Amino acid sequence: MSSLISSNPSSQEGVCGCSFDTLQIMTDLRNTQTVVDFGVVLDLGYRLYEQGLKVVNCKYCRRSQQSSISTLPVLAKQCLTLFEAACSAYNISRRDRLFDPIAAPLNEPLSEFICIKAKVTLGEVELEGEEAEMLAKMLLNRNLLRLAELLESLKEVLSISLKDDCPPQRTLTLRSCQSSVDTTIHRLAVLVEQIGVESC
User: Which domain of life is it from (predicted)?
Assistant: First the structure.
């Protein structure tokens, strides 16, 4: 999987607007209703991908101790929970996760959200039944792969940062972020694999 990290970071040192945009996504995720529309799930997933891309390519975020880098793993985990709810809505089984202690710790609920199906259209044609479910699965798979690609790039940034001479507190924060990213990547892999099985 190709890295999303640019060789020319977008932000100049000391100048960064990433925190505001990331905070907006965090607010929207936290304000998401328990019953959520499929279209909202896709929108939040795409926005996180776009903003995450800006953050991992931001020179200031890579160096600052108070940057959006440390926020991305939390947002990715919340977004993945929405994707899992969407998978349930479209009959994509999560049986693998039920028996996976890494993907689903005993003290963590499978999902706090209930996703409702949205009207699925292809051009001007409204799809129903199996065709609608197949297109929904394709959209979910695309968004999951984007999130996985972003997390791999974030993992690379964290690994590079840990090689620098960091204060002890920042090192602990980076290692915690790295662990969270690894767990979320594992959960993503389970869902991506299951979508492939269900679509065959």
Answer: Eukaryota
